[in-house]
Structure formats: structure tokens, C-alpha cells
């Protein structure tokens, strides 16, 4: 990564949280496809600094594919603007260098044979050396268990610890936007509190958070706004008022509701 790019990432993520400002990430007409089969058909969304947008929807709705297309790991199209620049045709690495970090489903970004510390070092390696220790402290203050498990192989951690490490690794580059695919999947409810606190800390720092979630009650705790995907299209979008009633929201796309 060039020095200039590092500066861009830093200046975006250092912005004070102000949800009234322009979005940190603005996506328009996002599509995703596997070979010639199109599974996401033109989704618009935006997330401001200090805001969390949850992507809800049933199995197979296209949540993972859409996040993958935004991150550049699934084929697709559409605009992905970060800080005003369209990164939608860049490689996944170039998007990461522009401030977009992705935590895939099932913590797929961690290196199981490496220690916790080595994983975090991998995440930090592209950050300016002068900023690495402060970012490491930020990550370890958010997830103190990772300090305790410093020398353990990532592959032997519990699911919750692995999720914390996956987020810690993704934060290494001090991103402006964190995209997470079903972070609560398969985790014990006790870990939900830790994730909620972590997301609140990231929002307070001014990051924009975009995540897919199957667990609507958990999404309703952490999200400021939501979209519901169905068959690759947005079937509904809304905010805190709807999120106060997660059962009703889940009924919109589960159990055959005819919304
Ligand atoms: N690697 C792939 N190759 C071909 N088709 C795929 C692939 N991954 C997903 N699909 C298809 O794309 C569509 C959207 O799937 P996707 O996994 O994005 O949905 P999802 O909402 O994330 O569901 P889930 O919560 O079950 O992961 C589905 O029809 C799925 O079968």
C-alpha cells in the first residue's frame, strides 16, 4: 500500500461520528452472480459514520452474495463509493486499501495454524508502523480475551474467540467500513454481549458497519437501520421503530408473511 493510500484510510476512519454527514459507504445498483446466474439484482444502500446497517432476509436471499460483491470477492457490478471514490471495479485488496474490511461467514479470514498474536500482526502489517501499537491496543482493549490467548493457535479457540479474532484481524488496517457476514452465527448468547459492546465501540470511533444477520433479535439490538433482502432484491427497509419489534420484523420474511 502506498503512503498516500494509508493517509486516505486514516483520514476517513479518523472522522468523528456524525450520522448527519455524507455516507462513508454508498452502494448503488449492486449485483452479484455465479457464472451467468444472477442472484442479486441491483441493491442500493448507504451507511454513515457511527451507524450500523443490518441486512436481513431468509436463507438464500442473497445477503452473503451481496456483501461479497461489495467486498470484491463475488462477481458482480454496481457502484461502491467510499469517501466519494467508486471502488466498485477494484480488486478486493484494493478495496481493503481504500478502507473496506470484510469479515466473512464462519470467520473465514483467520489463519487457524497461526497464533492469536500472529493473526493480529497479519492484520496490522499494512498499517503505518507508527500507528500499529495504538491499533493493537484498541483491538485488545475491545477483546481482552485475545490478550490472554495470545500464544494459542487460532484453530483451537472457541467459536466466540475466533469471531473476536476475525474482527480484530479485519480491524488491523484501521478501516472506515467494516462489513461482516453473520457474525453471530453459531455463537453462545454470552458472546452476543461482547459483540454488541464491540460494535458500539466501533460506532463511537466513527466506523460504518454493514452486516448480514439471520438472528433478527440480535440485529435489533445492534442496528440503527435495516434492509430486508428477498430473492436478491430489497423488499423492505426501515429504522429503529421497526427494530423494536424483532418478532414482527422476522415475520415479514419468515413463516410465509405476505408482505
Ligand atoms: N458459490 C455459489 N455458487 C453458486 N450459487 C451460489 C453460491 N453461493 C450462493 N449461491 C446461490 O446464491 C443465492 C444467494 O445465496 P446467499 O448465500 O448469498 O444467500 P444468503 O441470504 O446469504 O443465505 P444464507 O444465510 O443461507 O447464507 C442462493 O440461491 C444460493 O444458492
From TrEMBL:
Keyword Cytoplasm: no
UniProt xrefs under CDD domains: ABC_TM1139_LivF_branched
Family annotation (Pfam families): ABC_tran (PF00005)
Listed PROSITE patterns: ABC_TRANSPORTER_1 (PS00211), ABC_TRANSPORTER_2 (PS50893)
UniProt keyword terms in alphabetical order: Amino-acid transport, ATP-binding, Nucleotide-binding, Transport
ABC transporter domain segment(s): 25-256
TM annotation in the entry: none
Domain of life according to the entry: Bacteria
GO MF assignments: ATP binding
Record-linked PANTHER family: HIGH-AFFINITY BRANCHED-CHAIN AMINO ACID TRANSPORT ATP-BINDING PROTEIN LIVF
Family: Belongs to the ABC transporter superfamily.
Protein name: ABC transporter ATP-binding protein
Amino acid at each position: 500500500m502506498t503512503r498516500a493510500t494509508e493517509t486516505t484510510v486514516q483520514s476517513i476512519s479518523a472522522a468523528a461520528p456524525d450520522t448527519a454527514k455524507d455516507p462513508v459507504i454508498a452502494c448503488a445498483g449492486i449485483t452479484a452472480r455465479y457464472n451467468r446466474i444472477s442472484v442479486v439484482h441491483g441493491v442500493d444502500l448507504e451507511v454513515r459514520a457511527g451507524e450500523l446497517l443490518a441486512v436481513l432476509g431468509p436463507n438464500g436471499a442473497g445477503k452473503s452474495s451481496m456483501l461479497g460483491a461489495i467486498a470484491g470477492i463475488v462477481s458482480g457490478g454496481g457502484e461502491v463509493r467510499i469517501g466519494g471514490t467508486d471502488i466498485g471495479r477494484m480488486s478486493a485488496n484494493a478495496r481493503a486499501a481504500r478502507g473496506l474490511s470484510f469479515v466473512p461467514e464462519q470467520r473465514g479470514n483467520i489463519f487457524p495454524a497461526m497464533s492469536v498474536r500472529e493473526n493480529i500482526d497479519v492484520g496490522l502489517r499494512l498499517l503505518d508502523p507508527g500507528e500499529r501499537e495504538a491499533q493493537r491496543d484498541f483491538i485488545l482493549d475491545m477483546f481482552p480475551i485475545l490478550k490472554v490467548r495470545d500464544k494459542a493457535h487460532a484453530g483451537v479457540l472457541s467459536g466466540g474467540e475466533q469471531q473476536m479474532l476475525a474482527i480484530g484481524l479485519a480491524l488491523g488496517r484501521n478501516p472506515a467500513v467494516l462489513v461482516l457476514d453473520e457474525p453471530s452465527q453459531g455463537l453462545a448468547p454470552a458472546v452476543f454481549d461482547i459483540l454488541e459492546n464491540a460494535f458500539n465501540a466501533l460506532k463511537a470511533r466513527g466506523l460504518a458497519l454493514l452486516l448480514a444477520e439471520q438472528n433478527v433479535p440480535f440485529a435489533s439490538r445492534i442496528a440503527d437501520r435495516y434492509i430486508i433482502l428477498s430473492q436478491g432484491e430489497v423488499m423492505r427497509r426501515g429504522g429503529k421503530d421497526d427494530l423494536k419489534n424483532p418478532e414482527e420484523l422476522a415475520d415479514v420474511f419468515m413463516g410465509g408473511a405476505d408482505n
